[in-house]
């Protein structure tokens, strides 16, 4: 298998920031064992780190949370405001889906690494090197620090299903997406002859690029793909680390009376991405998508359903909600769509 970072001609330079001398030494040992990585410096305080970032221009920063003077999250906020760069938060506080992890991600951290409990020495940081490489690749950083534009790799994908009323709902949802949104794929029930115009309309009102799925195309950051209507189902597969996900047009009879089917998409995303996916089911008749969204949730994905009040037809999101597939409900208003917990 080709190494995920072999597409570059040089190794990833890393600055390690941790107030513990022991932790700095152990992180250095763990990272130095990986030939893809070079530790170019260490810092014990944010002030030291600030000077070294300017001097060394590292590709990736590893950053502790608990430090004197200014904690890691405060420093992360400053970095993202003044000199954005890939940051891996490294702390025992960075448990998956914890409040601390959510805050770090909102502030701009690319990866959050939780120290292995019950381990000793260098083994505490087993897996950190892979997290550093993912951070460098996901943010499009090469050894020269140049952005790779829309070819940026991301392991997290968004899958959206909609039917009656979905044209308007999708316009509202995508209107709030940033230009560098996560890779997004959409099934909207509609006849084949309307697919091209629909994609062009969404592209005109959206900051990310919007286009139709073609067989074998890659899911990449800053790109929204629309499943073409009529001829085939659209499914996603995982194809490797450099370009993690591909789209496929799959022949087959209609599923739940539809082709493409939201269930076909969601079931494939559950298998390909698991917890690295977000599933959204919007307004529509009947129940297409409920089974697939439930599979996504069981695989660890975050799942969202449109609420009754704002749905033109509360059929698909209702079926998904009633079978336990919906983790959160989407509440529409005159303002951008906001999330509220499902009861």
TrEMBL record:
Its main location: cytoplasm. It holds the Pfam family CheB_methylest. It catalyses: [protein]-L-glutamate 5-O-methyl ester + H2O = L-glutamyl-[protein] + methanol + H(+); L-glutaminyl-[protein] + H2O = L-glutamyl-[protein] + NH4(+). It is found in: Cytoplasm. Gene3D superfamilies: 3.40.50.2300, Methylesterase CheB, C-terminal domain (3.40.50.180). The modification 4-aspartylphosphate is found at residue 64. Residues 13-130 form the Response regulatory domain. It is an enzyme of class 3 (hydrolase). The keyword Chaperone does not apply. CDD domains: CheB_Rec, REC_CheB-like. Its EC number is 3.1.1.61, 3.5.1.44. Phosphorylated by CheA. Phosphorylation of the N-terminal regulatory domain activates the methylesterase activity. Keywords: Chemotaxis, Cytoplasm, Hydrolase, Phosphoprotein. PROSITE patterns: CHEB, RESPONSE_REGULATORY. The active site is at 163, 189, 288. InterPro entries: CheB-like (IPR008248), CheB_C (IPR035909), CheY-like_superfamily (IPR011006), Sig_transdc_resp-reg_Me-estase (IPR000673), Sig_transdc_resp-reg_receiver (IPR001789). It comes from the Bacteria. HAMAP family: CheB_chemtxs (MF_00099). Belongs to the CheB family. Involved in chemotaxis. Part of a chemotaxis signal transduction system that modulates chemotaxis in response to various stimuli. Catalyzes the demethylation of specific methylglutamate residues introduced into the chemoreceptors (methyl-accepting chemotaxis proteins or MCP) by CheR. Also mediates the irreversible deamidation of specific glutamine residues to glutamic acid. This is Protein-glutamate methylesterase/protein-glutamine glutaminase. The gene is cheB.
């Amino acid at each position: 298998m080709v190494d995920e970072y072999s597409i570059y001609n040089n190794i990833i330079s890393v600055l390690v920031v941790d107030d513990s001398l022991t932790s700095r030494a152990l992180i250095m040992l763990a990272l130095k064992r990986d030939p893809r990585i070079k530790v170019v410096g260490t810092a014990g305080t944010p002030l030291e780190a600030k000077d070294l970032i300017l001097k060394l221009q590292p590709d990736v920063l590893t950053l502790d949370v608990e430090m004197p003077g200014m904690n890691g999250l405060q420093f992360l906020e400053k970095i993202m405001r003044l000199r954005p760069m890939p940051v891996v938060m490294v702390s025992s506080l960075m448990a998956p889906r914890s409040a601390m992890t959510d805050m770090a991600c909102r502030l701009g951290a690319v990866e959050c690494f939780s120290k292995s409990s019950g381990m000793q020495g260098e083994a505490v940081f087993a897996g950190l090197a892979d997290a550093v490489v993912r951070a460098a690749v996901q943010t499009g950083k090469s050894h020269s620090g140049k952005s790779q534009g829309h070819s940026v790799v991301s392991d997290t994908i968004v899958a959206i299903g909609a039917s009656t009323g979905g044209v308007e709902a999708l316009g509202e949802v995508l209107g709030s997406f940033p230009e560098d949104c996560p890779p997004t794929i959409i099934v909207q029930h509609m006849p084949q002859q309307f697919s091209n115009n629909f994609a062009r309309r969404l592209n005109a009102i959206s900051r990310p690029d919007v286009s139709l799925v073609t067989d074998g195309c890659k899911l990449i950051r800053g790109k929204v793909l629309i499943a073409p209507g009529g001829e085939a189902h659209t499914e996603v597969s995982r194809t490797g680390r450099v370009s993690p996900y591909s789209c496929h047009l799959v022949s087959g009879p209609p599923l739940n009376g539809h082709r493409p089917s939201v269930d076909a998409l969601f079931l494939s995303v559950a298998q390909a991405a698991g917890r690295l996916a977000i599933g959204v089911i919007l307004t529509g008749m009947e129940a297409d998508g409920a089974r697939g969204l439930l599979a996504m949730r069981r695989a660890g994905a975050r799942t969202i359903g449109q609420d009754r009040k704002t749905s033109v037809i509360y059929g698909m999101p209702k079926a998904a909600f009633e079978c336990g597939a919906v983790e959160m409900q989407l509440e529409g208003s005159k303002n951008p769509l906001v999330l509220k917990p499902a009861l």
